[in-house]
Amino acid sequence: DVPASDAVKALINKGMMIPASAQVDDSVLSVLSEVYELDLEWSDDSPEVVEDAPLKTFKKPILRGENLKPRAPIVTVMGHVDHGKTTLLDTIRNTNITAREAGGITQHIGASRVHHEGKDIVFLDTPGHAAFTSMRARGAQCTDIAILVVAADDGVMPQTMEAISHAKAAGVPIIVAVNKMDKPAANPDRVKQQLSDHGLIPEDWGGDTIMVHVSAKSGENIDQLLEMILLVAEMEELKADPTVSPEGVVIEAELDKGKGAVATVLVQQGTLKKGDIILMESSWGKIRAMINASGKQLKSAGPSTAVEILGLSDVPQPGERFIKVDAEKEARDSISAKDQKRREVANQMSPRMTLEELYSKMQDGATPTVNLLIKCDVQGSVEALVGSLNKMVTDEVGINVVHTGVGGLSESDIMLASASDAIVIGFNVRPDNNAKKMAEKEHVQIRLYRVIYDVIDDIKAAMEGMLAPDV
Ligand code: GDP
To answer: Which of 268, 246, 243, 188 is nearest to 66 (CA)?
Structure first.
């Protein structure tokens, strides 16, 4: 009977960062029962217990429900650059997609569903372990099987090894696609030897790693690769209950000029329906429309279905989980409680500053920190900017990025910036009217840019005291 925000605070005090919407397991319940002096009792329909679950896995849905049904596997393609990840995905999509049915127009929503021998496989469209791991860093894991593409003429390369580590760290089974077998220089035995050295021993050498010789270009053995995916999926016993309350994860999100905030979500359990009210970490919404990869409007989406949804209050981050809530008020309250918490956390940061004031503070002999809130049009720019900024930190001045995001500048961004005395950097995005008003009221400096170098230059100049006050 305590407010969720209370429980979240109590957990933070115990060193556990767990959002109110997260599913929790025994260890969290134990901590809560201690804090609130409650007795724990397990009922028969309690969720399957995850043994030794690290904190992060809280965000992976715990299997629940009594009507567990097999579900389609979610697959990510990884591997070294130029080894054929994109080509492989294209070939698989072109030969197996069901999207063409009913005159659908294939559109990019971040995931594609292919059909093979009466079964479905869902491929996440962004290949590579960067996307995979940035989702995981946010605590979301939605990949069931990793396809490791290794070019037979090139062999194991640095990013091949990285991909292996990332998949292993996530506990995701790996299927190796030894690619470019059509090339005269293809040497699959060398690839197998190299992979064995890294702990992936092929089945025909007595190990347990499935390796398929393919050519993404000619399509050779792609069927066999799909068969192996279905085989592994069967061994993994991937299941979900379509009848429980829906939940899942955001895999892509953007601000669309016409449609507003749109997100592609992957339903992991339950069935999401048009009109449902869903709550994410930074956004909520009543689902106005759901569209699949063939551009078809759906009324409902069951487990392992990726759908683009419209009707969100804000652009969420990939990796955020969603749950269904019963009432709009519940969603709204939860978001404003979260904003409040963000502000409280941000409040403990250093005092207000503009870029122009930075230099004079430095002259005073203090070691100032520039707090920045960064919003960009695409996630790639966020990462590029933050990467460059991190390299600029010196002994004299620190840089603290309080928040990053994709999409236009909203009122809640400005509130957060105000509370944390952050300068707002908008890269290829603009503040909406409410955000503009709020910025004036709160005296928050918004700086808009179109070129990454300009951002870097301005901040460098400020750090060196070169920037003429202009805002
Ligand atoms: P990615 O960087 O891993 O996504 O690699 P791409 O799919 O972009 O492929 C890199 C290059 O390798 C492209 O020029 C492809 O046409 C080529 N390629 C990919 N798969 C094959 C294959 O099976 N055989 C041959 N000969 N070339 C391939």
So the answer is: 243
